[in-house]
Amino acid sequence: MTITVIGLGICLPRRNNRGQVITLVVITALLTATLCIIRDVDRPFGGIINVAPTAITEAERQATRDFTANHPAAELPCDDQGNRRTV
Q1: How far apart are CA 43 and CA 50, in angstroms?
Q2: Which residues of 43-69 are buried (b: 16+ CB within 10 A; e: fewer)?
Q3: Could you report the per-residue pLDDT of 25-49, keeping only the tens digit for each?
Q4: Which of 22, 25, 40, 68 could be stapled to 47 by a disulfide with Cβ–Cβ 3.0 to 4.6 Å?
Q5: pTM of the predicted model as reported, rounded to 2 decimal places
Q6: Of 6, 5, 8, which is closest to residue 31 (Cα–Cα)?
Q7: Is the CB of residue 1 less than 8 Å from the CB of residue 35?
Q8: Would you list the DSSP string of the chain?
């Protein structure tokens, strides 16, 4: 992103460049916001916007309940860490 902004800044004319500077600032803000959103989506529990894991915990509890109700004699196919059990 830094190289892109510097490249665009070098291409600006030396005089009467108010519109180009405003465009450069807007593009820089949009690129920065896009990178922050991508980072936040990649890390939902530690990004800029904090998401509590309660919904995932509830989904895990319901999946475990349904599996044990339908297969009472079987063990869950994974351990507590989510790793697949070997047969």
Answers
A1: 9
A2: eeeeeeeeeeeeeeeeeeeeeeeeeee
A3: 898 899 899 988 888 888 777 767 7
A4: 40
A5: 0.48
A6: 5
A7: yes
A8: -HHHHHHHHHTS-SSS-HHHHHHHHHHHHHHHHHHHHHHHHH-TTTSSS---THHHHHHHHHHHHHHHHH-TTSPPSB-TTSPBPP-
